[in-house]
Amino acid sequence: MKSPNLFLALMVLAIPLACSLHAQDSQLQVKPERRTDVEGKLSRRALFGAQLAPVTPAVRAKQKLEGEGGVVLQRVFPGTSAAAGDFKINDVILAVEGVAITGVPMFIKTMAQARAGQELTFEFVRDGAKHKKAVRLKELPREAGQGYDVIYSHVTSHGARLRTIITRPRAEGRHVAVFLLQGGNACFSIDTPVGQPNSFTRIARDLARAGYVTMRLERPGCGDSEGGPLRDVDFNTELDGFKAALKALKRFDYVDADNVFLFGHSMGGVVAPLMAGQTPVRGIAFYGTASETWFESVFGQRRRLLSLSGMDPAAVDREVLRHGQFWFSLVVHKKTPTQILDQHPGLRKQFGTTIGDLFTPMITDRDYVAGRHYTYYQQLADRNLPEAWEKLAATPLAAGKNDNAKALPQHRHPRVLAIWGKADWMSTKPANAWVAHVVNRVRPGSAKFVELDSIDHFFFHAESFEESFGYLRPPRGGPHGRFNPAILRTLRAWLGETATSSKQQPATG
Predict the structure, then answer these.
(1) Final residue belonging to a domain, choices 108, 123, 139
(2) Within a domain: residue 284?
Protein backbone atom coordinates (compact mmCIF):
# COMPACT_ATOMS: atom_id res chain seq x y z
CA MET A 1 0.00 0.00 0.00
CA LYS A 2 1.36 3.42 -0.88
CA SER A 3 1.14 6.52 1.24
CA PRO A 4 -0.42 9.61 -0.38
CA ASN A 5 2.84 11.01 -1.74
CA LEU A 6 5.46 9.45 0.46
CA PHE A 7 7.84 12.38 0.07
CA LEU A 8 5.70 14.92 1.86
CA ALA A 9 3.92 12.49 4.09
CA LEU A 10 7.44 11.77 5.30
CA MET A 11 8.52 15.40 5.16
CA VAL A 12 6.04 16.12 7.86
CA LEU A 13 7.42 12.99 9.12
CA ALA A 14 7.03 9.79 10.96
CA ILE A 15 3.76 8.27 9.77
CA PRO A 16 3.04 4.57 9.92
CA LEU A 17 3.25 4.05 6.18
CA ALA A 18 0.48 1.48 5.92
CA CYS A 19 -2.07 3.53 7.83
CA SER A 20 -2.88 6.22 5.28
CA LEU A 21 -5.59 4.98 2.96
CA HIS A 22 -7.65 7.17 0.65
CA ALA A 23 -9.93 5.21 -1.66
CA GLN A 24 -10.94 7.66 -4.38
CA ASP A 25 -13.60 5.33 -5.77
CA SER A 26 -15.60 5.08 -2.55
CA GLN A 27 -19.06 6.61 -2.80
CA LEU A 28 -20.26 5.20 0.50
CA GLN A 29 -20.43 7.58 3.44
CA VAL A 30 -21.33 5.96 6.74
CA LYS A 31 -19.92 8.62 9.05
CA PRO A 32 -22.68 9.86 11.36
CA GLU A 33 -23.37 13.54 11.96
CA ARG A 34 -21.97 13.32 15.49
CA ARG A 35 -19.77 10.44 16.65
CA THR A 36 -21.46 10.06 20.00
CA ASP A 37 -22.80 7.05 21.80
CA VAL A 38 -25.86 6.81 24.02
CA GLU A 39 -23.90 8.25 26.97
CA GLY A 40 -22.98 11.39 25.05
CA LYS A 41 -19.32 10.42 24.84
CA LEU A 42 -17.26 10.39 21.66
CA SER A 43 -17.90 6.98 20.15
CA ARG A 44 -15.24 4.49 19.22
CA ARG A 45 -14.34 3.24 15.78
CA ALA A 46 -15.98 0.01 14.74
CA LEU A 47 -14.15 -3.26 14.22
CA PHE A 48 -15.43 -5.58 11.51
CA GLY A 49 -12.99 -8.32 12.44
CA ALA A 50 -12.04 -10.36 9.39
CA GLN A 51 -8.98 -11.02 7.26
CA LEU A 52 -9.76 -9.76 3.76
CA ALA A 53 -8.56 -10.62 0.28
CA PRO A 54 -9.45 -9.61 -3.29
CA VAL A 55 -11.88 -11.84 -5.14
CA THR A 56 -9.84 -14.04 -7.50
CA PRO A 57 -11.21 -15.43 -10.78
CA ALA A 58 -11.31 -18.88 -9.16
CA VAL A 59 -13.43 -17.62 -6.26
CA ARG A 60 -15.63 -15.69 -8.66
CA ALA A 61 -16.30 -18.81 -10.68
CA LYS A 62 -16.93 -20.98 -7.61
CA GLN A 63 -19.34 -18.46 -6.08
CA LYS A 64 -21.05 -17.87 -9.46
CA LEU A 65 -20.34 -14.15 -9.33
CA GLU A 66 -20.84 -11.78 -12.21
CA GLY A 67 -19.02 -8.51 -12.70
CA GLU A 68 -16.14 -7.27 -10.55
CA GLY A 69 -15.51 -6.01 -7.04
CA GLY A 70 -16.23 -7.46 -3.63
CA VAL A 71 -13.98 -8.82 -0.91
CA VAL A 72 -13.58 -12.40 0.29
CA LEU A 73 -13.29 -13.27 3.99
CA GLN A 74 -10.28 -15.49 4.63
CA ARG A 75 -10.66 -15.52 8.40
CA VAL A 76 -13.26 -14.36 10.93
CA PHE A 77 -12.03 -13.35 14.38
CA PRO A 78 -14.07 -14.24 17.48
CA GLY A 79 -15.78 -11.53 19.50
CA THR A 80 -15.96 -9.10 16.56
CA SER A 81 -18.72 -7.64 14.42
CA ALA A 82 -18.06 -10.24 11.72
CA ALA A 83 -18.44 -13.07 14.21
CA ALA A 84 -21.58 -11.53 15.73
CA GLY A 85 -23.01 -11.26 12.22
CA ASP A 86 -22.32 -14.97 11.68
CA PHE A 87 -20.09 -14.39 8.68
CA LYS A 88 -18.10 -17.40 7.52
CA ILE A 89 -14.77 -18.02 5.83
CA ASN A 90 -15.08 -17.68 2.02
CA ASP A 91 -18.11 -15.36 2.22
CA VAL A 92 -17.83 -12.63 -0.42
CA ILE A 93 -19.14 -9.20 0.62
CA LEU A 94 -20.51 -7.37 -2.41
CA ALA A 95 -22.12 -4.23 -0.94
CA VAL A 96 -22.61 -2.25 2.25
CA GLU A 97 -25.68 -0.08 2.71
CA GLY A 98 -26.56 -0.74 -0.92
CA VAL A 99 -23.28 0.56 -2.33
CA ALA A 100 -21.14 -1.90 -4.26
CA ILE A 101 -17.71 -2.63 -2.77
CA THR A 102 -15.04 -2.23 -5.45
CA GLY A 103 -12.32 -4.00 -3.49
CA VAL A 104 -10.37 -4.26 -0.26
CA PRO A 105 -9.35 -0.55 -0.06
CA MET A 106 -12.94 0.62 -0.34
CA PHE A 107 -14.15 -1.87 2.28
CA ILE A 108 -11.42 -0.78 4.69
CA LYS A 109 -12.31 2.87 4.19
CA THR A 110 -15.99 2.07 4.71
CA MET A 111 -15.28 0.39 8.02
CA ALA A 112 -12.96 3.24 9.04
CA GLN A 113 -15.90 5.63 8.68
CA ALA A 114 -18.23 3.43 10.72
CA ARG A 115 -18.72 3.75 14.47
CA ALA A 116 -19.51 1.28 17.19
CA GLY A 117 -23.24 0.87 17.68
CA GLN A 118 -24.15 1.62 14.07
CA GLU A 119 -26.20 -0.93 12.17
CA LEU A 120 -25.08 -1.57 8.59
CA THR A 121 -26.64 -3.81 5.98
CA PHE A 122 -24.25 -6.17 4.18
CA GLU A 123 -24.95 -7.96 0.91
CA PHE A 124 -22.85 -11.06 0.42
CA VAL A 125 -22.61 -14.40 -1.33
CA ARG A 126 -22.15 -17.76 0.42
CA ASP A 127 -21.87 -20.99 -1.53
CA GLY A 128 -23.20 -19.28 -4.63
CA ALA A 129 -26.33 -17.91 -2.95
CA LYS A 130 -26.91 -14.21 -2.25
CA HIS A 131 -27.83 -13.01 1.24
CA LYS A 132 -28.48 -9.73 3.02
CA LYS A 133 -28.19 -9.04 6.75
CA ALA A 134 -28.06 -6.09 9.15
CA VAL A 135 -25.18 -6.13 11.65
CA ARG A 136 -24.75 -3.86 14.68
CA LEU A 137 -21.07 -3.05 14.82
CA LYS A 138 -18.88 -3.69 17.83
CA GLU A 139 -16.18 -1.24 18.84
CA LEU A 140 -12.48 -1.57 18.25
CA PRO A 141 -10.74 -2.75 21.45
CA ARG A 142 -9.22 -0.10 23.67
CA GLU A 143 -5.73 -0.04 25.06
CA ALA A 144 -5.40 -1.56 28.50
CA GLY A 145 -2.76 -0.49 30.99
CA GLN A 146 -0.63 -2.76 33.15
CA GLY A 147 -0.40 -0.97 36.48
CA TYR A 148 -2.04 2.21 35.17
CA ASP A 149 -5.43 3.27 33.82
CA VAL A 150 -6.13 4.22 30.18
CA ILE A 151 -8.81 6.88 29.70
CA TYR A 152 -10.47 7.54 26.34
CA SER A 153 -11.86 11.07 26.40
CA HIS A 154 -12.02 14.10 24.09
CA VAL A 155 -11.51 17.83 23.75
CA THR A 156 -13.46 20.18 21.50
CA SER A 157 -11.82 22.42 18.91
CA HIS A 158 -13.59 24.33 16.12
CA GLY A 159 -16.79 22.48 16.97
CA ALA A 160 -15.23 19.01 16.54
CA ARG A 161 -14.63 16.47 19.27
CA LEU A 162 -11.07 15.19 19.11
CA ARG A 163 -10.08 11.90 20.73
CA THR A 164 -7.63 12.04 23.61
CA ILE A 165 -6.01 8.94 25.09
CA ILE A 166 -4.68 9.47 28.60
CA THR A 167 -2.73 7.18 30.89
CA ARG A 168 -3.07 7.76 34.62
CA PRO A 169 -1.02 6.23 37.42
CA ARG A 170 -3.08 4.43 40.05
CA ALA A 171 -1.13 6.05 42.89
CA GLU A 172 -2.84 8.94 44.64
CA GLY A 173 -1.78 12.55 44.18
CA ARG A 174 -0.72 14.75 41.29
CA HIS A 175 1.75 13.44 38.77
CA VAL A 176 4.18 14.76 36.20
CA ALA A 177 2.53 14.70 32.76
CA VAL A 178 3.87 14.32 29.23
CA PHE A 179 1.87 15.32 26.15
CA LEU A 180 3.13 13.16 23.27
CA LEU A 181 2.94 14.92 19.89
CA GLN A 182 3.02 12.58 16.90
CA GLY A 183 4.84 13.26 13.68
CA GLY A 184 3.51 13.21 10.15
CA ASN A 185 0.73 15.11 8.47
CA ALA A 186 -1.30 12.11 7.31
CA CYS A 187 -4.44 10.62 8.83
CA PHE A 188 -3.84 7.70 11.19
CA SER A 189 -4.86 6.65 14.66
CA ILE A 190 -2.50 7.14 17.60
CA ASP A 191 -3.43 4.01 19.54
CA THR A 192 -2.59 0.38 18.79
CA PRO A 193 -4.85 -1.71 21.01
CA VAL A 194 -4.23 -4.93 19.09
CA GLY A 195 -1.08 -6.38 17.58
CA GLN A 196 2.43 -5.05 18.01
CA PRO A 197 2.48 -1.43 19.25
CA ASN A 198 4.09 1.16 17.01
CA SER A 199 7.01 3.20 18.29
CA PHE A 200 4.83 6.08 19.41
CA THR A 201 2.63 3.80 21.50
CA ARG A 202 5.71 2.12 22.99
CA ILE A 203 6.89 5.49 24.29
CA ALA A 204 3.48 6.23 25.82
CA ARG A 205 3.36 2.83 27.55
CA ASP A 206 6.91 3.13 28.85
CA LEU A 207 6.24 6.54 30.42
CA ALA A 208 2.96 5.29 31.87
CA ARG A 209 4.72 2.36 33.54
CA ALA A 210 7.28 4.80 34.93
CA GLY A 211 4.52 6.72 36.73
CA TYR A 212 3.87 9.59 34.35
CA VAL A 213 0.52 10.81 33.13
CA THR A 214 0.58 10.81 29.33
CA MET A 215 -1.74 12.25 26.71
CA ARG A 216 -2.11 11.60 22.99
CA LEU A 217 -4.46 13.37 20.57
CA GLU A 218 -5.97 12.24 17.28
CA ARG A 219 -6.13 14.79 14.50
CA PRO A 220 -9.50 16.01 13.14
CA GLY A 221 -11.25 13.35 11.10
CA CYS A 222 -8.74 10.65 12.08
CA GLY A 223 -9.28 7.63 14.29
CA ASP A 224 -12.24 8.40 16.53
CA SER A 225 -12.06 12.18 16.09
CA GLU A 226 -14.75 14.31 14.50
CA GLY A 227 -13.96 17.10 12.08
CA GLY A 228 -12.17 16.76 8.80
CA PRO A 229 -11.65 15.14 6.48
CA LEU A 230 -8.09 15.89 7.51
CA ARG A 231 -7.06 16.87 4.00
CA ASP A 232 -9.33 19.93 4.32
CA VAL A 233 -8.00 20.96 7.75
CA ASP A 234 -5.46 23.77 7.65
CA PHE A 235 -2.39 24.02 9.88
CA ASN A 236 -3.82 26.64 12.23
CA THR A 237 -6.97 24.61 12.88
CA GLU A 238 -4.96 21.48 13.59
CA LEU A 239 -2.68 23.43 15.92
CA ASP A 240 -5.69 24.77 17.84
CA GLY A 241 -6.71 21.19 18.62
CA PHE A 242 -3.34 20.49 20.23
CA LYS A 243 -3.57 23.73 22.20
CA ALA A 244 -7.01 22.80 23.52
CA ALA A 245 -5.76 19.38 24.61
CA LEU A 246 -2.79 20.89 26.46
CA LYS A 247 -5.06 23.22 28.41
CA ALA A 248 -7.29 20.29 29.32
CA LEU A 249 -4.30 18.22 30.47
CA LYS A 250 -3.16 20.90 32.90
CA ARG A 251 -6.64 21.07 34.47
CA PHE A 252 -6.85 17.38 35.48
CA ASP A 253 -6.85 16.99 39.27
CA TYR A 254 -4.31 14.15 39.03
CA VAL A 255 -1.81 16.25 37.01
CA ASP A 256 0.83 18.47 38.56
CA ALA A 257 0.18 21.55 36.41
CA ASP A 258 3.62 22.93 37.28
CA ASN A 259 5.26 19.87 35.74
CA VAL A 260 3.72 19.33 32.33
CA PHE A 261 6.08 18.46 29.47
CA LEU A 262 5.79 18.11 25.72
CA PHE A 263 7.55 15.46 23.68
CA GLY A 264 7.41 16.11 19.96
CA HIS A 265 8.41 13.57 17.36
CA SER A 266 9.32 15.09 14.00
CA MET A 267 6.38 17.36 13.08
CA GLY A 268 5.46 17.25 16.76
CA GLY A 269 8.69 19.12 17.42
CA VAL A 270 7.50 21.89 15.10
CA VAL A 271 4.13 22.12 16.85
CA ALA A 272 5.52 22.04 20.42
CA PRO A 273 6.95 25.58 20.77
CA LEU A 274 3.87 27.02 19.04
CA MET A 275 1.64 25.35 21.65
CA ALA A 276 3.76 26.38 24.62
CA GLY A 277 3.67 30.04 23.59
CA GLN A 278 0.18 30.35 25.08
CA THR A 279 0.16 27.60 27.72
CA PRO A 280 3.46 27.41 29.64
CA VAL A 281 5.09 24.03 30.16
CA ARG A 282 8.01 22.94 32.32
CA GLY A 283 9.94 21.69 29.33
CA ILE A 284 9.95 20.42 25.77
CA ALA A 285 11.82 17.39 24.45
CA PHE A 286 11.79 16.56 20.77
CA TYR A 287 13.29 14.07 18.36
CA GLY A 288 14.13 14.38 14.67
CA THR A 289 12.46 17.70 13.92
CA ALA A 290 13.08 20.75 11.74
CA SER A 291 14.12 24.23 12.76
CA GLU A 292 14.78 25.91 9.42
CA THR A 293 12.17 27.35 7.08
CA TRP A 294 9.74 24.96 5.46
CA PHE A 295 11.26 25.85 2.11
CA GLU A 296 14.71 24.68 3.22
CA SER A 297 13.35 21.57 4.92
CA VAL A 298 11.56 20.41 1.78
CA PHE A 299 14.67 20.68 -0.38
CA GLY A 300 17.03 19.04 2.07
CA GLN A 301 14.85 16.05 2.65
CA ARG A 302 13.96 15.75 -1.03
CA ARG A 303 17.65 15.56 -1.91
CA ARG A 304 18.39 12.93 0.74
CA LEU A 305 15.38 10.86 -0.23
CA LEU A 306 16.21 10.79 -3.94
CA SER A 307 19.89 10.15 -3.33
CA LEU A 308 19.12 7.17 -1.09
CA SER A 309 16.71 5.82 -3.70
CA GLY A 310 19.62 5.52 -6.13
CA MET A 311 18.80 8.39 -8.49
CA ASP A 312 21.66 9.76 -10.55
CA PRO A 313 23.18 12.87 -8.84
CA ALA A 314 22.58 15.05 -11.90
CA ALA A 315 18.96 13.95 -12.00
CA VAL A 316 18.65 14.72 -8.28
CA ASP A 317 19.75 18.30 -8.93
CA ARG A 318 17.22 18.74 -11.70
CA GLU A 319 14.48 17.28 -9.53
CA VAL A 320 15.29 19.52 -6.56
CA LEU A 321 15.32 22.63 -8.75
CA ARG A 322 11.90 21.78 -10.15
CA HIS A 323 10.58 21.34 -6.64
CA GLY A 324 12.10 24.70 -5.74
CA GLN A 325 10.07 26.28 -8.51
CA PHE A 326 6.88 24.78 -7.19
CA TRP A 327 7.38 25.32 -3.46
CA PHE A 328 8.67 28.88 -3.71
CA SER A 329 5.57 29.80 -5.71
CA LEU A 330 3.29 28.00 -3.25
CA VAL A 331 4.58 29.11 0.15
CA VAL A 332 6.31 32.41 -0.63
CA HIS A 333 4.20 33.90 -3.44
CA LYS A 334 1.07 32.18 -2.04
CA LYS A 335 -0.13 30.86 -5.39
CA THR A 336 -2.47 27.92 -5.73
CA PRO A 337 -1.25 24.63 -7.27
CA THR A 338 -3.38 25.29 -10.36
CA GLN A 339 -1.90 28.77 -10.82
CA ILE A 340 1.61 27.35 -10.48
CA LEU A 341 1.09 24.63 -13.08
CA ASP A 342 -0.54 27.12 -15.45
CA GLN A 343 2.48 29.39 -15.10
CA HIS A 344 5.01 26.53 -15.29
CA PRO A 345 3.47 23.88 -17.56
CA GLY A 346 6.76 21.99 -17.53
CA LEU A 347 5.97 20.92 -13.96
CA ARG A 348 2.74 19.18 -14.92
CA LYS A 349 4.39 15.93 -15.92
CA GLN A 350 6.52 15.72 -12.80
CA PHE A 351 3.80 16.59 -10.30
CA GLY A 352 1.14 14.41 -11.84
CA THR A 353 3.04 11.17 -12.42
CA THR A 354 4.69 8.54 -10.30
CA ILE A 355 8.40 8.07 -9.78
CA GLY A 356 9.30 4.42 -9.46
CA ASP A 357 7.10 2.72 -6.87
CA LEU A 358 7.79 5.18 -4.07
CA PHE A 359 5.64 8.17 -4.99
CA THR A 360 2.05 8.88 -5.94
CA PRO A 361 0.97 12.13 -7.63
CA MET A 362 1.96 15.24 -5.68
CA ILE A 363 -1.11 17.28 -6.67
CA THR A 364 -4.61 15.82 -6.60
CA ASP A 365 -8.03 17.42 -7.10
CA ARG A 366 -6.41 20.75 -8.01
CA ASP A 367 -5.98 22.04 -4.43
CA TYR A 368 -4.35 19.16 -2.54
CA VAL A 369 -0.60 18.71 -2.20
CA ALA A 370 0.59 15.40 -0.78
CA GLY A 371 -2.84 14.76 0.69
CA ARG A 372 -3.37 18.15 2.39
CA HIS A 373 -4.96 21.38 1.19
CA TYR A 374 -2.33 23.82 -0.03
CA THR A 375 -3.30 26.34 2.69
CA TYR A 376 -1.90 23.91 5.28
CA TYR A 377 1.61 24.39 3.87
CA GLN A 378 1.23 28.12 3.38
CA GLN A 379 0.27 28.63 7.03
CA LEU A 380 3.03 26.29 8.19
CA ALA A 381 5.63 28.10 6.10
CA ASP A 382 4.62 31.42 7.66
CA ARG A 383 5.74 30.21 11.10
CA ASN A 384 9.13 31.42 12.29
CA LEU A 385 10.37 28.53 14.41
CA PRO A 386 13.53 30.17 15.84
CA GLU A 387 11.35 33.06 16.93
CA ALA A 388 8.95 30.66 18.67
CA TRP A 389 11.85 28.98 20.49
CA GLU A 390 13.30 32.37 21.50
CA LYS A 391 9.98 33.45 22.98
CA LEU A 392 9.71 30.18 24.84
CA ALA A 393 13.19 30.58 26.31
CA ALA A 394 12.50 34.16 27.39
CA THR A 395 9.18 33.42 29.12
CA PRO A 396 9.60 32.93 32.88
CA LEU A 397 7.60 30.24 34.60
CA ALA A 398 5.50 31.12 37.60
CA ALA A 399 6.72 29.53 40.80
CA GLY A 400 4.70 26.39 41.44
CA LYS A 401 3.41 25.40 44.82
CA ASN A 402 5.75 22.41 44.79
CA ASP A 403 8.89 24.37 43.94
CA ASN A 404 11.45 24.94 46.64
CA ALA A 405 14.15 27.55 47.04
CA LYS A 406 16.92 25.16 46.11
CA ALA A 407 15.33 23.76 42.96
CA LEU A 408 13.59 26.88 41.65
CA PRO A 409 16.51 28.95 40.27
CA GLN A 410 17.45 26.42 37.60
CA HIS A 411 13.82 25.97 36.56
CA ARG A 412 12.63 29.57 36.24
CA HIS A 413 12.36 29.06 32.47
CA PRO A 414 11.30 26.10 30.31
CA ARG A 415 13.95 23.47 29.65
CA VAL A 416 14.60 21.97 26.22
CA LEU A 417 16.05 18.64 25.14
CA ALA A 418 16.91 18.20 21.46
CA ILE A 419 17.53 14.59 20.35
CA TRP A 420 18.74 13.27 17.01
CA GLY A 421 19.61 9.75 15.91
CA LYS A 422 22.68 9.14 13.76
CA ALA A 423 20.68 7.02 11.30
CA ASP A 424 17.92 9.62 10.95
CA TRP A 425 18.18 10.71 7.31
CA MET A 426 14.77 12.38 7.44
CA SER A 427 16.03 15.18 9.65
CA THR A 428 19.54 16.53 10.17
CA LYS A 429 21.88 16.95 13.09
CA PRO A 430 22.31 20.72 12.46
CA ALA A 431 18.54 21.31 12.38
CA ASN A 432 18.03 19.62 15.74
CA ALA A 433 21.13 21.02 17.41
CA TRP A 434 20.21 24.51 16.19
CA VAL A 435 17.18 24.63 18.48
CA ALA A 436 19.36 24.04 21.54
CA HIS A 437 21.68 26.79 20.28
CA VAL A 438 18.79 29.25 19.80
CA VAL A 439 17.40 28.57 23.28
CA ASN A 440 20.81 28.83 24.96
CA ARG A 441 21.50 32.17 23.27
CA VAL A 442 18.49 33.55 25.11
CA ARG A 443 18.82 31.56 28.32
CA PRO A 444 22.26 29.90 28.69
CA GLY A 445 22.13 26.38 30.04
CA SER A 446 18.40 25.90 29.40
CA ALA A 447 18.79 23.47 26.52
CA LYS A 448 20.97 20.55 25.58
CA PHE A 449 21.48 18.46 22.46
CA VAL A 450 21.87 14.67 22.59
CA GLU A 451 22.99 12.48 19.68
CA LEU A 452 22.03 8.80 19.82
CA ASP A 453 23.82 5.92 18.10
CA SER A 454 22.10 3.25 15.99
CA ILE A 455 18.64 4.76 15.79
CA ASP A 456 16.69 6.19 12.86
CA HIS A 457 13.76 8.57 12.46
CA PHE A 458 11.17 5.95 13.37
CA PHE A 459 13.08 4.87 16.53
CA PHE A 460 14.29 1.71 14.78
CA HIS A 461 17.71 0.13 15.20
CA ALA A 462 19.80 1.19 12.21
CA GLU A 463 23.49 1.80 11.72
CA SER A 464 23.22 3.97 8.61
CA PHE A 465 20.90 6.07 6.48
CA GLU A 466 20.87 3.28 3.93
CA GLU A 467 19.73 0.66 6.43
CA SER A 468 16.96 2.93 7.68
CA PHE A 469 15.84 3.75 4.14
CA GLY A 470 15.52 0.06 3.42
CA TYR A 471 12.79 -0.24 6.07
CA LEU A 472 10.47 1.89 3.93
CA ARG A 473 10.02 -0.86 1.36
CA PRO A 474 11.61 -4.08 2.62
CA PRO A 475 11.86 -6.99 0.17
CA ARG A 476 9.34 -9.78 0.54
CA GLY A 477 10.27 -11.63 3.69
CA GLY A 478 12.84 -8.98 4.56
CA PRO A 479 13.33 -7.56 8.04
CA HIS A 480 11.26 -4.69 9.37
CA GLY A 481 12.41 -2.09 11.84
CA ARG A 482 13.24 -3.15 15.40
CA PHE A 483 12.51 -0.61 18.11
CA ASN A 484 15.55 0.95 19.82
CA PRO A 485 14.85 1.67 23.52
CA ALA A 486 17.63 4.28 23.69
CA ILE A 487 14.98 6.96 23.15
CA LEU A 488 13.14 5.74 26.26
CA ARG A 489 16.22 5.87 28.49
CA THR A 490 17.18 9.32 27.22
CA LEU A 491 13.73 10.80 27.65
CA ARG A 492 13.10 9.32 31.09
CA ALA A 493 16.48 10.46 32.40
CA TRP A 494 15.84 14.04 31.27
CA LEU A 495 12.33 14.11 32.70
CA GLY A 496 13.63 12.83 36.03
CA GLU A 497 16.27 15.57 36.12
CA THR A 498 13.96 18.37 35.01
CA ALA A 499 10.70 17.83 36.91
CA THR A 500 10.91 19.80 40.15
CA SER A 501 8.24 18.35 42.39
CA SER A 502 7.57 14.70 41.66
CA LYS A 503 8.78 12.12 44.16
CA GLN A 504 8.49 9.39 41.55
CA GLN A 505 11.65 8.13 39.96
CA PRO A 506 11.49 6.99 36.33
CA ALA A 507 12.22 3.32 35.81
CA THR A 508 15.57 2.34 34.39
CA GLY A 509 16.52 -0.10 31.69
Answers:
(1) 139
(2) no
